[in-house]
Structures are given as structure tokens and as C-alpha cells.
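Page 47, continued from p. 46.
Same chain as before, 154 aa.
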Amino acid sequence: MISIYTDGAARGNPGPGGYGIVMIFGPHRKELSEGFRMTTNNRMELLSVIVALESLKNPGSLVTIYSDSKYVVDSVEKGWVFNWEKKYFNGKKNIDLWQRFLRIYPKHKIKFHWVKGHASNVENNRCDELAVAASYATAQRIDSGYENEVAKLK
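Result:
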């Protein structure tokens, strides 16, 4: 069983943002984070889950994802994202990320657990620290999915 803790942050929402990930498998621990110059909190919450799943080496892994994002957890656990896909994501945000998620999701056996953010969960708090620090990083990536969508609206 692989335990994955994820969090996303955006300063300004939209604004500079980042994600943080803690992955635990037996005695092994891995932390990942990355910052973006302009994005949203929900995009970073979802991207943290995607990046964590994409970093798994063995298909069919048993995975439990702990997230403080109702947006992500409910979208998957309540089946909303699968209905959005059937309706071609009509009127939905973050389509690029949801499509990326749906490509990796079937490769593993995944359970989601919602955890209260900024509470007593040590690993979730560590993910928050990583995400916030990444949002301040000097070398930040471009969230092209977000920035392209904003450009279309102008």
C-alpha cells in the first residue's frame, strides 16, 4: 500500500502557486513540489494528485490518496468527473488536468480520503509547507493549461 498526501496552494487565486506531495511506501519516503507563476488553488490540488500518480513505477499499485481538497476528492469519489467526461467536460474548468488524471487513474487501485487542512495531519501539513514554498520559488513553470484558458477569454 502506497500512501500519498497532496496539497496545492495559490497566492491570490489566481496567482503564483505550487503543489506539495509526500509519498510513503513502507520505510521509503519521497517529497515532491513545484511552483508555477500563475495558476489556481484547485489546479494545484489536482495537479499534485496527477504528478504523484504519474511518478509511481508499478502499474496496479494499491494507493491511498489523502487530500484536503473537496474539489478533487468529491469529484472522483462521487463519480462526478466520469459524468463530466461523458458530457465532454461541457462548462467545466481544468479540463486539461482532468483528462490527464483520467489517463493515469485506471492504472492503479486508488482510494481517496479527505483530510481537514491545516489541522493535526502531519503529512498534510508538510504538503502545505511544500506547496506554499514552491509558490514563492524564483524558478517557476508556466501553467500553460491555465494561461491558455485565460488568453482565450480575453
